[in-house]
Amino acid sequence: MNEDNVCYAKSSPAAALTWITLAFFAGFAGVSAYGPIIGKLKETMVMGPLWMSLLASCPALTGSLLRIPFGAMVDRFGGKSPILTLLGLAALGVLGITLMFTAVPSPTSAHYSLFLLFGILCGCGIAVFSVGIPSVSYWHPQKKQGSALALYAGLGNLAPGLFAMLLPFLVISIGFTVSYVIWFAMLAVLVVVVFVFMKDAPYFQYREMGMDIDPDALLVACGQELIPSGTAMQSLKTAGSDWRTWILTFFYFITFGGFIALTVWLPTYWAQYHQFSLVKAGGLTALFSLSASLLRVAGGYASDRLGGEKITLYSFFILAAGALMMLMAAQSLGLALAGEMLLALGMGFANSAVFKLVPKYSPAAVGGAAGIVGGLGAFGGFVIPPFMGLFVKMSGQPGFAYGFSVFLLLAVLALLLLVVLNRFTMAETKVAVASP
Predict the structure, then answer these.
(1) Angstrom distance (rounded) from CA 50 to CA 258
(2) Which label site among 99, 239, 329, 379 has the fewest CB atoms less than 10 Å from its CB?
């Protein structure tokens, strides 16, 4: 390590944030290519609803599962190699879809396994999220991580909504096959751009150059505050052995998992409960999705200034209030809209606050903690909707409003766990201060 306080690492925190966020966009470009083909496959494949639902959900399932190991890999290999691996796999999925529809314009049930494979490959792009979290964290000091992570996740989460509008527009304008050729070319270009411009955090660059690494000197010279301390498996074990990781996972299960769940639930809610057209129902759902993503950015700045614990506390109170308003709205459009926006506010801010706390509670295993929190937390998108449906069925009354009871109960439970988390954290801090 140099003694003249000169940083020999290439790139900068701002540039790294730009390229890592672009990689997150590219990951969503891969998985966004899969959604539009499901409708075409339903027309030509004679399959039961269970098999078709498996086909439709496989990208999200694999993307969630892969978040855990690939997030942990960052502590061992840095973020660039895992990101390029995931984007390459997603690009192969898009290429497979493109070639398949070129060769067989009307696929049959005999091609089911191939499209299942393409869905699994496309879903790899979703896992970029958990690689980006520790990659951004290693580039930024803790006092700026909330803002940086919020920009990364908030802007990145805009991609699904944007791509969901852009790809169908291309299909209608220039045809299905040409659109997918262009889409694959765009994804391939993004992969090349990330390969050329993205750099790992200074620690990983110094290690690759064979230089001795002094954490204090690295902080002074390059501004890198967090240092990984083991292999991917050690990172997962370290993060998993800390009970606070599992509380943060539950929080993210509610907020990000809930965000995914509501993007599926709200179109039906607005269309069937309020009798809106599909276009208007989709617009109100997009309002929730885009608002939650943009508010995530604001939540990151607030977390840097007020602390992740406080923002998490306020967020779950807001989330509970939003769920209660959705329950009380009946046929009141104004109350329902207000409830939806409060849910977006609570989820957006809480998502940022949770990942502000990840490097704070797991400074030596950020990758492992990000993988566990991001991967298992995302499963809320699969678990919450069935429970919402169960509450609707138990109520014995028509409409989808009663499903929001799930969020009210989860928010109350989260507030109780937050009290436990804060008390134990304060107790540990007092012990650390009292220790000589």
Answers:
(1) 23
(2) 99
CA 262-31-185 angle, to 5 degrees, is 145
Measure the CA–CA gap between 3 and 299, rounded to whole angstroms.
38
Give me the count of residues in the chain: 436
How buried is 423 (Cβ within 10 angstroms: 0-12 exposed, 13-18 middle, 19+ buried)? Answer: exposed
Nearest in space to 350 (alpha carbons), one of 243, 248, 240, 264: 248
pLDDT tens across 118-160, in order?
989 988 988 898 899 889 988 888 788 878 888 888 788 777 7
Could you tell me which residues come within 8 angstroms of residue 163 by beta carbon, excluding any fewer than 6 positions away? 28, 29, 32
DSSP state of 330: T
Considering all CA atoms of the chain, what is the largest pairwise distance in Å, rounded to the nearest integer? 73
Range 232-434 has CATH code 3.40.190.10: no
**Encoding tokens for residue 36?**
């539009």
- Residue whose token pair is 């190699």: 81
At 13, the amino acid letter reads P
Q: Which residues contact 162 (CB under 8 A, 6 or more apart)?
A: none
Q: Could you read off the pLDDT of 239-252 as tens digits, one per residue?
A: 888 889 999 999 99
Per domain, the residue ranges of the chain are: 13-222, 232-434
259: Cα separation from own chain's centroid: 10
CATH architecture of 13-222: Up-down Bundle (1.20)
pLDDT in tens, 346-371: 999 999 899 889 888 887 777 788 88
Amino acid at 349: F
